UniProtKB/TrEMBL annotation:
Topology versus the membrane: Single-pass type II membrane protein
EC number assigned by the record: 2.4.1.101
Recorded metabolic or biological pathway in which this protein acts: Protein modification; protein glycosylation
UniProt subcellular location: Golgi apparatus membrane
Stated family: Belongs to the glycosyltransferase 13 family.
GO MF annotation, one: manganese ion binding
Keywords: Glycosyltransferase, Golgi apparatus, Manganese, Membrane, Metal-binding, Signal-anchor, Transferase, Transmembrane, Transmembrane helix
GO cellular component: Golgi membrane
Pfam families named among the record's database cross-references: GNT-I (PF03071)
Entry protein name: Alpha-1,3-mannosyl-glycoprotein 2-beta-N-acetylglucosaminyltransferase
Catalysed reaction, written as an equation: N(4)-(alpha-D-Man-(1->3)-[alpha-D-Man-(1->3)-[alpha-D-Man-(1->6)]-alpha-D-Man-(1->6)]-beta-D-Man-(1->4)-beta-D-GlcNAc-(1->4)-beta-D-GlcNAc)-L-asparaginyl-[protein] (N-glucan mannose isomer 5A1,2) + UDP-N-acetyl-alpha-D-glucosamine = N(4)-{beta-D-GlcNAc-(1->2)-alpha-D-Man-(1->3)-[alpha-D-Man-(1->3)-[alpha-D-Man-(1->6)]-alpha-D-Man-(1->6)]-beta-D-Man-(1->4)-beta-D-GlcNAc-(1->4)-beta-D-GlcNAc}-L-asparaginyl-[protein] + UDP + H(+)
Length: 495
């Protein structure tokens, strides 16, 4: 079966002129493919109203309110050491509380945890390690999968019911992680709250074998078969599953029709973790070598993220600057192989019809963070969440000067902690009191010791509103194509 064209495959056809409504960026992820039917219908309705045949949907992901990661382990210190080392290298770790849940008191595993304790405590929003009393519920000869199911129940009860977390990423002690492993969950976790037909996000494609397959590292899809192996669930789902959690074969139980109830998981085509456990509760060396060892996985983060905005990638394909320049009122015109590509900044281009403009999230407020505090943390401390999409509206000198004194004026800078003001008493910065904006995409998680971020905080309950707003404002409009027309579209798609 032929592969579906990516969302940019029909941007240019012959001499057709296409206007792409982007937020300073090109979007890779086809969110329409993972949205519920009623939202896809709304997208199609909007598309018909403006005379186009298809409207893939992009949603700027709201931040998760209080996410956690839990590492389940037992008696494999060598594997656990590799897993924790890989986990510590992930940049988004600072937005998560990390728990290591040990089944029993194996001294080698305890030693590995202590070796990593100080580093993990510094890298995360919080760190704890636990030891579960290893008491069999099905008798002393219960199989390995029963121990694991009972451990899951104990650990997830403690994480959700005592820890009060909104979401949990579940991993085990035999995994290595792709650089964007946590990015996947950060940028898709909101779907679990916005879409009742979804119940998990997983980093694992069960069919993600490397041989003779050409998977797209930026593509996500729905699966009705629960995948496990590095996955996220919400606290609301655990309220449902926890009381009925089985004492054995927990993953098989998750695949039962009466448990899944028609709900799907979102997974990437290319796995975001690699399983290194040759021997485990449900694995032996022969099965590992035949299946898990042959799985493909993303060793590098792709240029475009999961729903992230990436103008730079489109710029490389078309040979223009990696950030918008030479625009007219934030409308950029680029001739491309017999056609013309028009990119409009949906936040700032006043040439767009009102219905296609992107507005701030209702209830968004600018918050001046203290020095060294990320926007994720600053919003969380106020009972809100950071909205990366809304940071663009604060990325102006006017907005900064309303929030800060900016005694040394306002200038342009690069970095992950922008927009910001350098603290007036900063000793290790050359420009104390200067406010800075950026031409990069602002991020919620960036921070620096001597800068104060201006943060876009939205109420936690606006996740559903964000999804509805995205339906009203499609990011890509695809033109009707007349028979026989060809041109630069295929070249752009395959560049």
């Amino acid at each position: 079966m032929a592969r579906r064209d990516p969302p940019y495959a029909s941007l240019l056809t012959g001499t057709l002129c296409l206007l792409i409504f982007v937020e300073l960026v090109w979007v890779q992820l086809r969110f329409a493919s993972v949205l519920p039917g009623n939202q896809r219908d709304a997208v199609n309705s909007v598309a018909r109203d403006v005379g186009v045949s298809h409207a893939p949907l992009h949603q700027d992901p709201p931040s998760l309110l209080n996410p956690a990661i839990i590492v389940f382990c037992y008696d494999r210190p060598g594997y656990l050491n590799q897993t924790l080392t890989s986990l510590a290298a992930l940049p988004e770790l600072a937005d998560f509380t990390l728990y290591i849940s040990q089944d029993g008191n194996h001294t080698g595993v305890q030693g590995v945890i202590e070796t990593h304790r100080a580093a993990l405590a510094a890298l995360t929003a919080g760190f704890e390690s636990w030891q579960r009393p290893r008491v069999p519920q099905l008798g002393p000869r219960q199989p390995g999968h029963a121990w694991l199911a009972q451990h899951y129940k104990w650990g997830l009860d403690r994480l959700f019911l005592k820890g009060g977390h909104s979401h949990a990423v579940i991993v085990e002690d035999d995994m290595l992680f792709s650089p964007d492993f946590l990015t996947l969950f950060m940028e898709t976790g909101w779907l679990l709250d916005a879409d009742p037909t979804l119940w998990c996000i997983s980093s694992w494609n069960d069919n993600g074998f490397s041989k003779d397959h050409h998977w797209d590292p930026t593509r996500l899809f729905r699966t009705s078969y629960f995948p496990g192996l590095g996955w996220m669930l919400s606290s609301r789902l655990w309220e449902e599953l926890g009381p009925a959690w089985p004492q054995q074969h927990w993953d098989h139980w998750m695949r039962m029709e009466g448990v899944a109830r028609g709900r799907d998981c979102v997974v990437p085509e290319v796995n975001r973790n690699r399983n290194i456990g040759e021997v485990g509760a449900n694995m032996d060396r022969a099965a590992f070598r035949k299946s898990l060892q042959t799985m493909d996985w993303a060793r590098e983060a792709p240029a475009a993220g999961f729903g992230d905005e990436d103008y730079a990638r489109l710029a490389r394909r078309t040979g223009v600057w990696a950030f918008p320049r030479g625009h007219y009122r934030f409308l950029t015109s680029v001739p491309w192989r017999g056609g013309r590509l028009l990119l409009a900044d949906a936040r700032r281009c006043d040439l767009l019809p009102g219905a296609l403009r992107t507005l701030p999230t209702p209830g968004m407020r600018g918050v001046a963070a203290e020095p060294g505090v990320s926007c994720s943390a600053a919003c969380r401390a106020r009972g809100a969440v950071c909205s990366k999409a809304d940071l663009h509206f604060l990325n102006t000198c006017a907005a900064l000067m309303r929030a800060f004194p900016c005694p040394q004026g306002c200038s342009l800078e690069w970095g992950q902690d922008l927009p910001n003001m350098v603290a007036e008493g900063a000793r290790n910065h050359s420009s104390p009191g200067t406010c800075y904006v950026t031409q990069q995409m602002p991020q919620c998680r960036g921070q620096a010791p001597e800068t104060r971020r201006l943060c876009a905080c939205v109420p936690p309950g606006t996740v559903a509103d964000e999804a509805a707003a995205a339906v009203r404002r499609p990011r890509f409009l695809r033109p009707r194509v007349r028979a026989g027309e060809t041109g630069g579209a295929e070249a752009l798609a395959g560049a």
